Amino acid sequence: xxxxxxxxxxxxxxxxxxxxxxxxxxxxxxxxxxxxxxxxxxxxxxxxxxxxxxxxxxxxxxxxxxxxxxxxxxxxxxxxxxxxxxxxxxxxxxxxxxxxxxxxxxxxxxxxxxxxxxxxxxxxxxxxxxxxxxxxxxxxxxxxx
Length: 145
Known about the structure:
Largest sheet: 7 strands, parallel
CATH superfamily: DNA polymerase III subunit chi
Shape: globular
Strand content: 15-25%
Order of helices and strands: EHEHEEEEHE
CATH class: Alpha Beta
Helix content: 25-40%
CATH architecture: 3-Layer(aba) Sandwich
CATH topology: Rossmann fold
Number of helices: 3
Structural class: alpha/beta
C-alpha cells in the first residue's frame, strides 16, 4: 500500500522540495514531481540554482510525452500528471489536488506551507488519503525550512 508523508509548515515549498529531491536522488529513488505548469516552471529554475556547487538531475516532460531513451534514467521527472510517470517509485505532489493514479507509487510526499489556502487544501488531501486507509506520517518542518 502506498505510504503518504505530509511535511507541514514549510516556509518555502520550492526550496524544501529541492532539498527533498536531492536527498531522494542520493538514495537512488526515481521521483515524479506533479504540479501546475507555473509551479513546474519555477521548480525547474530553482533546481538549477538552489545550490551553486550541486546539480540535481531532472527532466521536464510535456503532458503525455514519453522521455527519450537517454533521459529515462534521469532520477527526477517534472510532470503535470502522475499517469505520465509509469516507472517512478516516489510521487512528490506540489499540486493542490490529490493526483490521479497516486496509488501506483510506493510513496507520496505532500509539502504544505503555512499559507492558509495551502493548509486548507492540504487538509483536504489528508482527509482523502485517510478516508481510503492509506498510512500517513506527519513531519513538522523547522521554522527556517
